[in-house]
Amino acid sequence: MTDFTEEELALDPRFADQFERGFRPACKLYLISPPAIDAAFTDRLAAALDGGEVAAFQLRLKGIDDHAIARAAEPLQKLCADREVAFIVNDSVALAKRLGADGVHLGQSDGDPREARSILGPSAQIGVTCHDSRHLAMEAGEAGADYVAFGAFYPTTTKETRHRPEPSILSWWVTLFELPCVAIGGITAENAAPLVAAGADFLAVSSAVWSHADGPGAGVAAFAPLLATKG
Ligand SMILES: Cc1ncc(COP(=O)(O)OP(=O)(O)O)c(N)n1
Ligand SMILES: Cc1nc(C(=O)O)sc1CCOP(=O)(O)O
Ligand SMILES: [Mg+2]
């Protein structure tokens, strides 16, 4: 092992487990909205939040314009504020600014995190999609992101995905960096354990909650045993 620097060894997934992870808080739930919602959705979100601890809620509505998203956002944002759940807007820095959201999630084609920071200010939570790429994640960290998101770890019907990282990308990340990492894509209470064990700081989940047979509260509650401890 002496021929390599610590960083080189930790970058090699075969040796990642030999490196100490600094203290990290227990993994938390990051709830993603369904891509389309109706007037009853505020009650469904309230039911989800009644089910257990949720750290953040991302409003991810697809196929409608910013004005329509802004109208839909109002009661949801208020509910999140009342429950101390961070309210994150997907895709649009301008909309996040207009709503006074707690943050924005940016895909690789959704804009530059540095520009988002200059518009939203130092307290905004800025997240960046990094697919299965260590390089994109390090770039996002350098650009001032507050979290990096890896995915899709499992098949999902919520979104077409082209990347399938291994859980070891999470253990590699948490071994080297303090910046939180989010795991996303097809995550359920039944398949999430390896992601928590690998060190995910957040599980980002949509259909496992909104399509849970016993309702969204049960969907959130199902994750509680996984989130109580960290691997
Ligand atoms: C937490 C989190 N991670 C990844 C994504 C995906 O963002 P993006 O690649 O921009 O794709 P869309 O969600 O915009 O379809 C996300 N939204 N949230
Ligand atoms: C929005 C999103 N982004 C992904 C990525 O891989 O970047 S996967 C995904 C869908 C998440 O929803 P579900 O929990 O229903 O699979
Ligand atoms: Mg996007």
From TrEMBL:
GO cellular component: cytoplasm
Listed transmembrane segments: none
Domain Thiamine phosphate synthase/TenI: 29-209
GO biological process per UniProt: thiamine biosynthetic process; thiamine diphosphate biosynthetic process
CDD domains in alphabetical order: TMP_TenI
EC number: 2.5.1.3
Cofactor(s), by name: Mg(2+)
Cofactor, free-text remark: Binds 1 Mg(2+) ion per subunit.
Enzyme class: transferase
Pathway annotation: Cofactor biosynthesis; thiamine diphosphate biosynthesis; thiamine phosphate from 4-amino-2-methyl-5-diphosphomethylpyrimidine and 4-methyl-5-(2-phosphoethyl)-thiazole: step 1/1
Keyword Magnesium (UniProt): yes
Binding site for Mg(2+): 91, 110
Residues that, per the record, bind 4-amino-2-methyl-5-(diphosphooxymethyl)pyrimidine: 58-62, 90, 129, 159
Residues that, per the record, bind 2-[(2R,5Z)-2-carboxy-4-methylthiazol-5(2H)-ylidene]ethyl phosphate: 156-158, 186
Leader sequence segment: none
Family to which this protein belongs: Belongs to the thiamine-phosphate synthase family.
Official protein name in the record: Thiamine-phosphate synthase
Keyword Transferase included in the entry's annotation: yes
Swiss-Prot/TrEMBL catalytic activity: 2-(2-carboxy-4-methylthiazol-5-yl)ethyl phosphate + 4-amino-2-methyl-5-(diphosphooxymethyl)pyrimidine + 2 H(+) = thiamine phosphate + CO2 + diphosphate; 4-methyl-5-(2-phosphooxyethyl)-thiazole + 4-amino-2-methyl-5-(diphosphooxymethyl)pyrimidine + H(+) = thiamine phosphate + diphosphate; 2-[(2R,5Z)-2-carboxy-4-methylthiazol-5(2H)-ylidene]ethyl phosphate + 4-amino-2-methyl-5-(diphosphooxymethyl)pyrimidine + 2 H(+) = thiamine phosphate + CO2 + diphosphate
Entries under Pfam families matching the protein: TMP-TENI
UniProt GO molecular function: magnesium ion binding; thiamine-phosphate diphosphorylase activity
Job description of the protein: Condenses 4-methyl-5-(beta-hydroxyethyl)thiazole monophosphate (THZ-P) and 2-methyl-4-amino-5-hydroxymethyl pyrimidine pyrophosphate (HMP-PP) to form thiamine monophosphate (TMP).
Keyword entries, A-Z: Magnesium, Metal-binding, Thiamine biosynthesis, Transferase
